Amino acid sequence: MAGHARGGRIAWLSGLFAAVVLAGAPVGVSAVAWPTSPGLLVGEVMTGGASASDEFIEIYNASLVDVDLGGLEMVYVTSSGSTVTRKQTWSAQLLGAHRHLLIANSVGLYAAGADGMYSGGLSATGGSIVLRTLGGTVIDSLSWGDAASAFVETHPGSAPPAGSSLERRPGADLGNGTDTNDNLVDAIVNATPVAQGLAAPPVPALAATPTPAPTPTCEWAPAPMATPAPTVMPSLFPTAVPSPTPGPSGAIVTLSGQLTTATGLIDGGRTAYLDLGAGGIALRLESADWPALAAGTFVSATGVLGEPHGERTLFLGSAVDLAYLGDGPRPAPLWAATGLACEAFESRLIAVQGVMGGLTVDDGTGPLNVVVPSGGHGFSGVEGIECVDNLMAEFVRLGSVKGLDTSCVKTMRRGGFRLKL
């Protein structure tokens, strides 16, 4: 989006809002009506082992907050979709962040450690497990084999052989947070499944959010009424300053959260920002060879804590220290007054509203500097630019700068400042 701001024209600066609208009943195999889920997912299905009753189903919470399953149900749909059988329902059941809920066949091997049980088996050749509101909106579905009902997300995953399971990626200790609404892409056959329930630890592990130091109240002082002397226009881009290598005293931690910026976008591609739920932190990778991840992606990052130039930063050693956990909507920005958008909002996604003036925006509480990835007046925004062409033609004609009439330069004016957001 390109904006053109002059004088008192209002400019809105805001982050991207993700609107997730849950639709109604399924409408077809390759065009499901429900969006991908950043939270609750059908994480794993095993359709039989040494006995056909050795079955289990796992529900996984890919988000960073606890979720109540109250008002939801889990159903089994046959391959053709002709039969839908409720296997579990909840009036209240809290599922912690990155944790699993285990539902098992009541006469099978996994019943003893299950958090819930069902009767009747699952077909090994094909079917779907669907998590939805009671009789209504689908949240997620995992299908396998020859499933061809309206609950199949694009393509079913492979039918797992006896003793194996169909597990949502990335799997094992990285959890089951991948959801593109294509089960063939999202899930793989696991030859050595391990049933995980509420008693199992969260995967990936949730790192404790560092407690920030008390932040002083942000203050601002109104600018004097006198017109300031002309100053040199500052650069639109921050000067790249090599970050110091953290010393051995820096804590090595793993933090999980959602990216508020795409990787490779800021500071020559070396910096990204991570929302931890109750705060934010900068991620720094000197090699800038991040995996290409969009804002809103759930990740875990391992590195050394530091604070260059006063900004809380996690320094990553290499690209493999950033692990993909799953896709999600971009976190909603925090609305802030321009005069109070300082330390309390460090590394957070914010939105402000005000009047543009030069490189600042002000809503009356104080100016806030604005830095954008690309933007500027450009020659196309300069009034009287034809003066340059005329001077060049005159210079060629005379063969010297002597006698050139440069008075037209005084008539050249910059146009309104252009932002590309």
Itemize the secondary structure elements and their pairings.
Elements lengths: L1 E4 L4 E4 L26 E7 L9 E6 L5 E2 L3 E7 L5 E6 L4 E2 L4 E6 L10 E3 L7 E8 L4 E8 L19 E4 L14 H4 E4 L61 E8 L11 E5 L4 E5 L13 E9 L6 E3 L6 E5 L7 E2 L14 E8 L2 E3 L4 E3 L4 E2 L6 E2 L2 H13 L14 E2 L2 E4 L1
Parallel strand pairs: 9-10, 17-19, 21-22
Antiparallel strand pairs: 1-28, 2-22, 3-4, 3-13, 4-9, 5-8, 6-7, 6-11, 11-12, 13-14, 15-16, 15-18, 16-17, 18-19, 18-20, 22-23, 23-24, 25-28, 26-27
Strand order of the largest sheet: 10-9-4-3-13-14
Rg to the nearest angstrom?
Answer: 28 Å
Low-confidence stretches: 1-29, 218-249, 374-381, 416-421
Assigned CATH class of the largest domain: Mainly Beta
Q: Could you tell me how far the N terminus lies from the C terminus, measured between alpha carbons in angstroms? A: 6 Å
Count of beta strands: 28
Task: Give the helix/strand class.
Answer: mainly beta
Compressed to H and E, one letter per element, the order equals EEEEEEEEEEEEEHEEEEEEEEEEEEEHEE
What do we call the CATH topology of the largest domain?
A: Immunoglobulin-like
Summed up, the helix count is: 2
What's the helical proportion of residues?
A: under 10%
Strand content: 25-35%
Per CATH, the superfamily of the largest domain is: Lamin Tail domain
Q: What's the main sheet like?
A: 6 strands, mixed
